Amino acid sequence: MKALVLDGSREGDLLTPVAVRGVVSALAGRAVDVRHVALRELAISPCAGCFGCWTRTPGECVIEDAASDVLRSYVGSDVVVYATPVTFGGYSSELKKMLDRFIPVLDPRFTTVGGEVHHLLRYRRYPKTIGLGTLPFPDPEAERLFAGLVARNGLNIHQTVESTVLVGVADAEPARRSAERLLDRAGVTR
Amino acid sequence: MNALILTGSPKGRKSASFTLASKLAEGLRKNGASVCEEPVHAGLRTDEGTRRLLEAVDASDLVVPVFPLYVDSLPAPLTRLLELVAGRRAGVASESNPRLAVIVQCGFPEAHQCDTAVGICRLFAERTGMRWAGALAMGMGGSVGEDIRRLPGGGKHVIRALDMTAESLAKDGDVPAEAATLFARPLMPRWLYNLFGNLGWRMQMRKHGTRRPIAYRPYSQE
Questions:
Q1: Which residues in chain A have their CB less than 8 angstroms from residue B194's CB?
Q2: Which of A43, A46, A50 is nearest to A65 (CA)?
Q3: What pTM value is reported for the model?
Q4: pLDDT per residue over A42-97, tens digit each?
Q5: Which run of H or of E encompasses B38?
Q6: Measured distance CA(B16)–CA(B142) in Å, rounded
């Protein structure tokens, strides 16, 4: 089993790296081949909104940069973790710059999912998606928005997804325990 | 009243966001506001452009990001700008207390798919000491193009919603509830939008001379 951890921590972020260490450790304990990608270290251009990945080179972005390798790894993974500081209830810009480049994994044509219009799936299978946010202090509104955002992202790949927010967790062991519970809930087998 | 309109689409002047932003700017000017329009993607490419964007926010009484929904939230560069503004306002006691209103358009038919993005913007306003002034959100944004008047029915309810919003914002008011309802009204039946959309992808592929099938799987492990 392969896992991809997309690390959206920003420079100076003390909590998300701890959460990432926790989830990497929890995944490794389940005999998983884990790839950790620190997105802030990669030069990834913003999505150009050109839809070239749907109409010029279906399935592949027309921008040639580090995002292609991450995308290939995403498609080949069984589990993907979105790790991020919760930013006003959303993702950090570091994680978002990659997620905006994920649209080539979908087929542009429309279909209905859960009563709403979404895109068809390009691939037969997608990794199980898990959201892992961090916050320095409790913030129920931000946590609610984050859970909703991760759930909506799940709809895009026709999945229900699990997420959690680690609040003020600055040590690896509690982060690992929380990650274990999250992976259990998401059905990532031991 | 100084208003700053931030266009959050990477497509610049050819985007639906720019079209909507321009109409709002026109309405704000008509109601006496001084309006500055800035593209976020282009601005953040350089340090100078980033500085200009941040200073423009500082100098504004009203900030209105107008953006397409990307993966259920804000495009990454706009998210980056919010992070920078938040850092700046936290680091220095800001004397200004601008209002924040947003306009979001989504390529799916349902306007409610924009709700999470609107929630993120509202929370940003609350956490950074800005005054939340409300949102306009629409689905079927893929049909807006470069001229609202070419929408079904001449885009009358979209234009009306933007005019009402401009008038209210220029007078220190919020986005009127009636404008939000009008703006969210579907531009056509959902089945028709889906049909046009699916045909549109095929037509663009033909225009580009694309040889790959639309469902091609370049990273397939099978």
A1: 110, 117
A2: A43
A3: 0.96
A4: 999 999 999 999 999 999 999 999 999 999 999 999 999 999 999 999 999 999 99
A5: strand B34-39
A6: 7
